[in-house]
Amino acid sequence: MAFRLANINNRAVLVTDNGVYDLERHGEGFSSEPMEAIARYRELHDVAASLNGSPDAQLDPATLGPPVPRPQKVLGIGLNYKAHAEESKMDLPENPLVFNKLSSCIVGPCDDVIVFGPTTDWEAELVVVMGTRARDIAAEDAWDNIAGVTCGQDISERTTQFASRPPHFDLGKSYDTFGPIGPSIVSVDQLNDPNDLALTCSVNGEQKQNARTNDLIFDVPALVAYISAICTLEPGDLIFTGTPSGVGVMAGTFLQPGDEVTTTIESIGTMTNRCVARGE
Ligand code: ZN
Hints:
Layout: E1 4-8, E2 11-16, E3 19-22, H1 23-26, H2 34-39, H3 41-50, E4 64-65, E5 74-78, H4 82-87, E6 97-100, E7 106-107, E8 113-115, E9 120-121, E10 124-130, E11 146-153, E12 156-157, H5 158-161, E13 179-186, E14 198-203, E15 206-212, H6 220-228, E16 238-240, H7 248-251, E17 260-265, E18 269-277
Parallel strand pairs: 5-16, 7-13, 8-18
Antiparallel strand pairs: 1-2, 1-4, 1-13, 2-3, 5-6, 9-12, 10-11, 10-16, 11-13, 14-15, 14-17, 17-18
The site of zinc ion has 7 residues, from loops.
């Protein structure tokens, strides 16, 4: 049975239409630790199927923390949608363009994003949450090694991103709070077609991005195969799979304190992050 795994007060919870179930209370032999829950994702299907009776609480979205609070690695993929590569006036990559987001940038689905510079931009993305210790995974086995998927924003400070020649993306995408994820990890069997999900981003209610993940140049199985041939992926490692066209830098509009960024992916959910000034 499909599951939705979330983090409330740094405790793993399963979310159903009825409400929230604390995993330590309802999962035989489970602790409250969200990272342990991710690594035991195969067992969560049975726990989800066994849930009955009244929930421990109703879901209050404002209490949600990042469903993966302490990923060991956070990898991002650049220029992975054709229309975005074209709007960026960059050649289509021949191999995945992989960069690091430092794990210290990860925040929850309702947390504030600090606007650190005048060219801070949005990037709505499908985020893959690895479930296994994965090395040399064949593309056809990739989804079986994934705990689930969630929404992400690969917030990017463009001036910092292109401050050096050649540019390196890592730091401009790693300011504190630049990696909101959530609202929950949705198991792959919850999705009709995990390779074809509608994804949108709006800023202050105005839609900026609207695409489907079947437009990815390197799809999720290809990314897992490529990366796991180079480094061992660990349970909870995140892959931000790339953003479609419609980022702010193309129109010269950027995030300002007070803006509200809403990210929605079909069958996964919505997260809304408010932009604040440094020190606010
Ligand atoms: Zn990105």
